C-alpha cells in the first residue's frame, strides 16, 4: 500500500479544512463563541474572563484576546489573556481559567482555542501540509460551589524545542530576504524558514512516550480509577501515534474518540473539536467523566480530569 491510501491508513486523515487567506483563528473562535454564548443564554456582561490560545494571532501586538473582547462585546472589566501554545494549549488554558474562577472574583469564563496553522505550512512539504487543518473552538466555564474540581498534570521540556519549530520571523532570528529562500530537505519536502518544520521521528517518540506517562501520572497523583473514566480525548496527532498511545494505556476503542478522518491535526482546537464532533449526543444528555491529554510544540504536554453533565454542545459551524 502506498501513495494516498498509505497516507490515510497511517495518519487516519482523509480530508482537512483550510481557511481562506483573510480568515484568522480569531474569526473562527469568534463565530464559535457567539453561538455558544447564545445557546447558553449568557449576558455578555456576565463573562469575567476570556483566554485565547493560538500560535496564529492577528498581530504581533496587541494581544488578540483584547481584540476579541471588543469584537464579542464583552465588558471592559473582562480579564483577557493570550496563550501561545499549540497542541497542549487547550489543557493549559483550562487550568488558567479554572484557577481564575476559583479565586472568588470571577464566575464565568470563555476559553477560545484555535489555529489557522496551514498559513505557515509549506504546500510542498508532505511531512506537514497534509496532516494539519484549521479550526477554532469555544469552551465556556462557570463556577459552581459544589461542582467537581478539575485536576491537572503538566510537563515541559524546552530542550526539545527544535522538534516543531518555525525558525525565522521572531526576534531571535528576525525576518530577512533569505528567510524566503526555498530549501529542498528531501523527497517531497521543500520549505523556507518562515514555514513549519516538523521532525517526525522525534515527535513520534515524544508522543508515544510522554502522553501515556502524563495520563498515568494524573491517574496516580489524584487516585483516579481508570476504569471509571467514560472518555479519553487525546490531541489528534495522527492515527498511528494515537493508537500506540491508546494501546500503551490499555484503553478500549469505544472510550477514545477520533476526529482525524475529517479534520486532521487541528492543533490546540483538537480536543474540543473531537468531543463536539464525536461525542455531542452523549455530552448533551449524560453525566460523563473525562480525561483530556494534549502534547506537542514546546515541547509541552499535560492532562486534565473533569466532569460534564447535560452541557450545551452546539453543532459544528463551517464557513
Write structural notes for this entry:
- This protein is α/β, with parallel strands linked by helices and 319 residues long.
- It contains 8 helices and 12 strands.
- The protein has helices at 3-11, 25-40, 64-72, 89-102, 200-221, 239-248, 260-263, 270-285, and strands at 49-53, 79-83, 108-115, 135-142, 151-156, 164-165, 183-186, 189-191, 197-198, 231-234, 287-296, 300-309.
- The strands form 4 sheets. It has a 4-stranded mixed β-sheet, sandwiched between helices. It has a 4-stranded mixed β-sheet with strand order 5-12-11-10, sandwiched between helices.
- A hairpin with a 2-residue loop joins strand 7 and strand 8 (189-191).
- The protein starts with a helix and ends in a 10-residue tail after the last strand.
- The model has no long low-confidence stretch (mean pLDDT 96).
- Please report the total strand number as a whole number: 12
Radius of gyration: 19 Å
- Span from first to last CA? 35 Å
Structural class: alpha/beta
Individual helix count: 8
Oligomer: single chain
**What percent of residues are in strands?**
15-25%
Instruction: Report strand order across the widest sheet.
Output: 2-1-3-4
What global shape is seen?
globular
State mean pLDDT (0 to 100 scale).
Answer: 96
Give a short account of the largest sheet. Answer: 4 strands, mixed
What share of residues is helical?
25-40%
Amino acid at each position: 500500500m502506498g501513495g494516498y491510501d498509505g497516507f490515510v491508513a497511517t495518519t487516519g486523515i482523509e480530508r482537512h479544512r483550510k481557511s481562506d487567506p483573510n480568515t484568522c483563528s480569531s474569526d473562527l473562535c469568534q463565530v464559535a463563541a457567539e453561538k455558544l454564548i447564545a445557546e447558553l443564554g449568557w449576558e455578555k456582561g456576565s463573562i469575567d474572563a476570556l483566554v485565547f490560545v493560538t500560535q496564529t494571532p492577528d498581530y504581533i501586538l496587541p494581544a488578540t484576546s483584547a481584540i476579541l473582547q471588543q469584537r464579542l462585546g464583552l465588558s471592559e472589566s473582562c480579564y483577557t489573556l493570550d496563550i501561545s501554545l499549540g497542541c497542549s494549549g487547550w489543557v493549559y488554558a483550562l487550568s488558567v481559567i479554572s484557577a481564575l474562577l476559583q479565586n472568588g472574583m470571577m464566575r464565568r469564563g470563555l476559553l477560545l482555542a484555535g489555529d489557522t496553522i496551514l498559513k505557515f505550512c509549506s504546500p510542498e512539504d508532505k511531512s506537514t501540509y497534509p496532516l494539519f487543518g484549521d479550526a477554532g473552538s469555544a469552551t465556556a466555564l462557570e463556577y459552581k460551589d459544589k461542582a467537581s474540581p478539575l485536576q491537572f498534570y503538566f510537563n515541559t521540556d524546552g530542550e526539545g524545542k527544535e522538534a516543531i519549530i518555525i525558525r525565522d520571523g521572531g526576534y531571535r532570528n528576525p525576518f530577512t530576504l533569505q528567510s524566503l529562500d526555498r530549501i529542498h530537505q528531501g523527497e517531497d519536502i521543500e520549505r523556507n524558514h518562515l514555514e513549519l518544520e516538523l521532525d517526525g521521528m522525534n515527535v513520534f517518540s515524544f508522543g508515544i512516550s510522554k502522553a501515556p506517562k502524563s495520563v498515568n501520572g494524573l491517574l496516580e497523583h489524584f487516585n483516579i480509577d481508570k476504569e471509571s473514566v467514560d472518555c479519553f480525548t487525546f490531541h489528534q496527532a495522527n492515527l498511528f501515534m494515537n493508537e500506540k498511545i491508546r494501546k500503551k494505556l490499555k484503553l478500549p476503542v469505544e472510550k477514545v474518540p477520533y476526529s482525524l478522518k475529517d479534520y486532521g491535526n487541528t492543533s490546540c482546537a483538537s480536543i474540543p473539536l473531537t468531543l463536539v464532533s464525536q461525542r455531542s449526543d452523549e455530552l448533551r444528555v449524560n453525566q460523563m467523566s473525562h480525561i483530556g491529554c494534549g502534547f506537542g510544540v514546546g515541547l509541552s504536554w499535560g492532562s486534565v480530569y473533569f466532569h460534564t453533565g447535560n452541557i450545551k454542545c452546539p453543532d459544528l459551524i463551517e464557513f
